[in-house]
Write a structure and sequence with these properties.
Number of strands: 9
EC number: 2.7.13.3
Structural class: alpha+beta
Number of domains: 2
Oligomer: single chain
Strand order of the largest sheet: 1-2-4-3
GO biological process, one term: chemotaxis
CATH architecture of the largest domain: 2-Layer Sandwich
Helix content: 10-25%
Protein name: Chemotaxis protein CheA
GO molecular function, one term: protein histidine kinase activity
Order of helices and strands: HEEHHHEEHEEEEE
Strand content: 25-35%
Shape: elongated
Catalytic activity: ATP + protein L-histidine = ADP + protein N-phospho-L-histidine
């Protein structure tokens, strides 16, 4: 799966540069977010072989959508190499679980050699939650207020450095670790 190398794309009759499309729209009480690419698509045979060797329930009449949903199984990965960001089998499982915890669901559609679309449906009520904006470097993120317990603005002298370059902040007699977001 994923976007092929420029060389492989040209051999497949595609332009050298891959396309990634992100869209969002309101659909009957839900927000629908779609992420699509024009890459290699999911490899049905490879996914089924990995699922079978991992002990996941598979059968020969599985639809393409059912096969695609196997990538969301805990620990599932078809990566041949493990890197810092792929191959460990934790990414898509976490995505699906977090979406379900928000009352939504995820769907996948893929055509081998043509690309993949991942569709996330979330209840519209999530789109109108109160939020707190947080700036990290040049990016702004919105945190749902129901997930924010407290907001502090410590002064530099209140930060206590630890070995290894980490810092803690003392708040009401308790030391809290600081996590850098950049």
């Amino acid at each position: 799966h994923s976007i092929e190398t420029p060389e492989k794309r040209l051999v497949a009759g595609k332009v050298a540069t891959g396309n990634l499309t992100l869209s969002a729209e309101h659909q009957g009480g839900n927000i629908c977010i779609e992420v699509s690419d024009d890459g290699a698509g999911l490899n049905r045979e490879r996914i089924l072989a990995k699922a079978l060797s991992s002990g996941l329930p598979v059968h020969e009449n599985m639809s393409d959508e059912e096969v695609g949903m196997l990538i969301f199984a805990p620990g599932f990965s078809t990566a041949e190499q493990v890197t810092d960001v792929s191959g460990r089998g934790v990414g898509m499982d976490v995505v699906k679980r977090n979406i379900q915890e928000m009352g939504g669901h995820v769907e996948i559609a893929s055509k081998q050699g043509k690309g993949t679309t991942i569709r996330i449906l979330l209840p519209l009520t999530l789109a109108i939650l109160d939020g707190m904006s947080v700036r990290v470097a040049d990016e702004v993120f919105i945190l749902p207020l129901n997930a924010v317990m407290e907001s502090l603005q410590p002064r530099a002298e209140e930060l206590k450095p630890l070995a290894g370059g980490e810092c803690v902040l003392e708040v009401r007699g308790e030391y809290l670790p600081l996590v850098e977001l950049w």
